[in-house]
Amino acid sequence: MTDDHQLLPETRRALRHRVATAQARGRAPSVVAGVVREGTPVWHGAHGEGAADAHRQYRIGSITKTFAAVLVLRLRDAGLLDLGDRLRTHLPDAPYGGDATLAQLLSHSAGLAAEARGPWWERTEGALRPALADIFGDTPDKHPAGRLYHYSNPGYALLGALVERLRGAPFEDVLREEVLRPLGMTRTTALPQAPYARGWAVHPYADAVQPEPLTDTGRMAPAGQLWSTVTDLGLFGRFLLEGDERVLDAGTLAEMRVPAVAPQDPQWESSYGLGLQLALDDGRVLAGHRGSMPGFTAGLWTCPEERLVAVAFANATSGVGAGALAAALLAEVADREPVLPAPWRPMPAADAEPWLLDLTGTWYWGTIPHTLRLLAGRTLTLAPVNGGGRGSRFRPVDGDSRRWKGLEGYYAGETLHAVPEGAAPHLDLGSFIFTRTPYDPGAPTPGGADPGGWGGL
Prior knowledge:
Layout: H1 9-26, E1 30-37, E2 40-48, E3 58-59, H2 64-77, H3 87-90, H4 102-106, H5 153-167, H6 171-183, E4 200-202, E5 209-211, H7 221-224, E6 227-228, H8 230-242, H9 250-256, E7 270-272, E8 277-281, E9 284-293, E10 296-303, E11 308-314, H10 322-336, H11 354-359, E12 361-365, E13 368-374, E14 380-384, E15 392-397, E16 400-406, E17 415-419, E18 426-429, E19 432-435
Antiparallel strand pairs: 1-2, 1-11, 3-6, 4-5, 7-8, 8-9, 9-10, 10-11, 12-13, 12-19, 13-14, 14-15, 15-16, 16-17, 17-18, 18-19
């Protein structure tokens, strides 16, 4: 990892203090963490025994699920499946969960059990569950599919089996060839490779430790098997923010960050997308994942708004919430050194066609003024002048220069059609007609304009 000269000394000191405090108060043998800003590693720190190497492996637990989700989205983008497909369409021998959609499995809304059948799968070898049917207990279905969020580790075992079926290779091999190798993640593996941290259980009432078992979880691997490093997870976090055409583009990654299920916490501060945990932290929306396995906790958070990634690991079963630590490190940098806005630049000349420029300005939906702006890439924004109400960005529809597709909010997926010619130019947005003057009598406003026009009472 590069040196941390890009952060101010007081910021580096604050980050180091947080890591040291987490290690000492959490009584973990070691804690290690790192921060990536705008695609560049800018800091890493450690506290405890043998933790200074950013290339030292720690077990990342359920962060593995995000890697599994990336593989499923790659299959979707390649046209091999649709997220609305039932699991049984592609995995007809799935013992349970066949009626759930792939989107429901990705977002933990398939209604499946939270854990595999006993004994505790995280501390026992996968040989105890050699087939998919061996993963589930007597009551695998806990809720109707699609009704609510219920975290399911076995659900991701099914997704891993789906990847293996459609790619014709073991999950680990597919992950290495399609994700890890393109992203340069040479130190992320299914089993540990030296140097790696040993996982420990710390006695709750004494400063005594005992080693946790090092397990190969077999069929459950897509739910939590991977080992990685601060450097490698920093690369993965950068990918989650920016995309990489060799793996997934930025549009698909943005789709993964959209909440797919209603939050279960009373404060509505957390949710789940497609393989990504989502959290609202002091006004910032974070996307990433927490992880734990016996002997380890891990956290990876990204903040698209601040263009930041934070990673944290600890090698103790409990005591250090590495997910909370990663979020705190991210906030520390964002608060002390807010991201600079991207410099304004004129749009390419090809995007500034006269008819498009003429389209900009004020449009009225009924009596409500909206401002239409033209951005680079022929992207449009349409929003109420007063800043409230419904607004959205719109991207051009391929092959049709007069139509755009909504990207967010109420108008996400809706079509904006511009009719700039004629006596009454107008915009048609999902049947809403926008005109240059309020209720233009010459425009095809639904219900028409009163022939008496505007006047007093």
